[in-house]
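so im writing up the methods section and need the Branched-chain amino acid ABC transporter permease record in one place, dumping it here so i stop losing it
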Amino acid sequence: MIDPHLLLSGVIFGLSMGSIFFLMTIGLSLCFGLMRIISLDQLLYYSIGAYLTYSVSLAIGNVWLGALVGVAVAGITALLVERFVFLRIYARDITFSMITSFGLLIGGIGVIKAVWGLVPRPVPVPIEAQWNILGTEVPVYRITVVLVALLVYAGIWLFLNKTIIGKAIRAGIEDVEHVEGLGINVYRLFTLTFVIAGGLSGLAGGLHAPLIMVSPDMGLEVLAFAFMVVIIGGLGSIKGTFISAFLVGQVVSIGSLVYAPLAQMAPFAIMLLILLIKPTGLYGSAMLKR
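--- predicted struct ---
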């Protein structure tokens, strides 16, 4: 029997972890949904966001400003990568984009090691206060991370459903040829989507940095969980990514309370079960080629 206070702490931990997973993988879903590419380099932008947060917080003592700088630099890096790399391979097979993006991730990790070294770096928690919820002390920062993820999801939904550019992106996700037929420059949509995805990945790194030790291989360490989230939710589905991220976060957190090995094993078991029932994921559609 799990202690109720420990269970509540586990739920909050799972929610914050799910929030990071969502911000980290939403870029993967956006890029696949519109461009039909698997952009593993999003995990590089996640690492960039974390390291910029560390550097700025170390220099001026402001973690929040560091996270904003991380988002900006991650977005700019994504823009350069999209312009000089992905723009040349959009027409290639999807496996080519996956291999290319993985190469970018490995190369980027090498650059991070050259700039920041191999030693893991700590980032201070910007909010050290705790709230007493049902007799359990809950870190306010973790609740803040959850609120940020919810605001991001709401912002993405409003952008895609209430703005002209967002509607064009959403239409492109459904049928890019039809959007091209309307005279819309889809490659500008691709660039905008890629920059947004990179910025959100950088935000994930910036928010996650105070909760972990920032290290060069942090992108590779979450690669398996990122794959699980997008596969369970359905590649290209924003709603599916949101739900599956929180599902995986809770499974990892509560599973570790029940039996430690479950934290690693249970998400894979759930993924396999869902794929057996629905091969395209919870909200995924059949794979198409661009």
